[in-house]
Amino acid sequence: MSTFTTVITSYLTKISRPYHITAALIFLVVGLLLYWPYLGMMPEGAHVWPQTDRLSLAINFYDFGFDFWHPRTSSFESIGGITGVEFPIQPYIASLGGLVFGRQNILTVFRLLDGLMALLGFWYLFRIVFERTGSFVAGLVPGTFLLTAPTYLFYALSTLPDPFSFSLTFIAFYYWLQYFDASDNFRDLLRAFAILILASLIKTTCTLHLGAVAGITVLYALFEPARFTQRQRIQLLSILGLGVALLAGFYVHNAHLNAEYQSQQFLAKPMPPDGVETWHEYLRVFRETWRYEYITRVEYDVLFVCVLICLAGAYKSWQQFPRVIMLLLASLAIAPLFYQLMGAQLAVHDYYIICSFLPPMIICLILALLLITTTLRKRKWIHIGITVGLLLLSGSFIYTSFGQLAGRMSDYHPPASVGYTHRWMRGGAALLKRAGVPHEAHVLVLGDYSPNMALTFFDRRGRIMATYLPDTKLAAIVEYASAFGLEYVIMKTESYALLAQEHTALLEAFEPVIEQPVVVLRVRHPEKIAW
């Protein structure tokens, strides 16, 4: 441990506790004010499809006896809805919350869980900076930076695993840095790898971060033989081996579920780019849609300044913060590697950047903060000026976050909102309940593509049919419903109007239950099949 680190650690040991508590309270209060209005709201904004897929997992864990090893959704596109999926600990915990707060509050528990994990991640980012600089204000910046980054801010309260795993990854980075920079406590290193393994199970992208940190640690073991005892080497290899076994084992388990139950509901394979055309398409979509959804204009400017600071202080940062430099270089290498693995999906899914492109941005920001706060500590007036500037920056980030989140949650947020297809489904569950449609009834939803979106909004199990009315004939709809034992058909009023020419035949096959604001028809003679 360097003399610099020893002095800073000794100093911060005396003063850190009230600052840690204050930072936690700040993030908690801001988080409550920011997220509270949306905790009970059904999935909204961009990518409602994957949000409802994850929510459907939680609801069906609750409805089907909490069988963790056989997760299922509401869609009968797989046998019984059973499907392989990345380690579903979030939906499982949310479903357990239903035992305490009721089934109707599973989504609220889900959002609360994700929001608290995001805030915990902010707190650990604060600790990484504060415990190396003694600057409380500088420690707040990484968390507030994420709070105003539209993509992260929005999905941190969704049901997706990406922000959850992102937080776990940086919590693991904290303990890894703590071992090398401050504590020399081997348990911190083991704790870091245990958390990284969990993050990798929840979101496969984080396996890249696990591999990078493991590689750096193994290099330390090779080039600094005295750092680890023989017993510690065995423990280190054991936890890494356990991690590989868990990841491989769960991959095989998911492959088995997908094959056994004929499921393709969750992507379970790489989607590499198809040549340079994929890159050009991504750049086009980035410019037109995602540029200021990933992060804001101000954040791009802040990152530009951070890059300049890191380049100017490269030598000093290597002397004082070598492990942070190593994490930065590793994360920079991971970004293009991720593109090679999943580039074909990147233009469509903005949340893919959370565990791939966002980590190097945050580490660069952290390194710049470490450099400017430690370098200018002795220059009183400059130090005060920078502190005030960082405080104003954090304040502006927090202020901006409220508008950013409201925009992402609203119906009008172009260009992303042009593709929203869930509007007509809102209030669907209450509508069916008032109409007396049994909760256990199996339904067919017309005109949708997502396997679980409409089924989740209407809170029923069944199938969807991506119809092209009026080209899709009534006979095909009747045959489809009959083949799968579906008792009700749900559609938009616009779709119902397109079937007007077949109205007589329609009434022979179906009995209208609701005709406004959506159409619900009961199949007169459904063929029952067992699921």
Uncertain spans, ≥5 residues at pLDDT below 50? Answer: none
Total strands: 5
* Secondary structure: helix percent: 55-70%
Shape descriptor: elongated
Give the terminus-to-terminus CA distance. Answer: 62 Å
Tally of helical segments? 21
> For the residues shown, what is the average pLDDT?
93
- Structural class comes to mainly alpha
Rg: 26 Å
Tell me the series of helices and strands, N- to C-terminal.
HHHHHHHHHHHHHHHHHEHEHEHHEE
**Largest sheet at a glance?**
5 strands, mixed
User: Which band does the percent of strand residues land in?
Assistant: under 5%
Strand arrangement, largest sheet? 2-1-3-5-4
Protein model, in words:
Strands 2-1-3-5-4 form a 5-stranded mixed beta sheet. It is elongated, with a radius of gyration of 26 Å. It has helices at residues 3-35, 48-63, 89-101, 106-133, 136-148, 150-155, 161-183, 186-202, 207-223, 230-260, 276-294, 297-312, 314-320, 322-346, 358-375, 380-409, 428-434, 453-458, 474-483, 493-498, 503-509, and strands at residues 442-446, 461-465, 488-492, 510-514, 518-523. The protein is 66% helix and 5% strand. The chain is mainly alpha-helical and 531 residues long. This is Glycosyltransferase RgtA/B/C/D-like domain-containing protein. Keywords: Membrane, Transmembrane, Transmembrane helix. The chain crosses the membrane at residues 20-39, 112-130, 136-157, 164-180, 192-222, 234-252, 294-314, 321-339, 351-372, 384-402. It comes from Hymenobacter defluvii.
